[in-house]
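Class, carefully examine what follows:
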Amino acid sequence: MILPKLRRHDNGNYYVHWVKDRRSARASTGRSDVRGAVLFYADWLKLNVDLLASPKRFAKAPRQPQKVLEAK
C-alpha cells in the first residue's frame, strides 16, 4: 500500500498526490503553510480512507463444483 503524499508545488501551495487504478491524482490543500497543509492532509486521509484500502479489481469468480464422472 502506498500512502498519498503531501508535496509543495512551484506556486507555493501544497497538494495531496495519490494513485488510484494506475492513474495519478491530486487535490489542492489551498494552503502555503506547512501546518495548515498537514491539518488538511490529516482530514483528507480520514475522509478518503477508501482510497487506501480499495477492493481488488480483478477478483476471481467463485469456482463451480466439477461433476465427477463414474465409469459404468
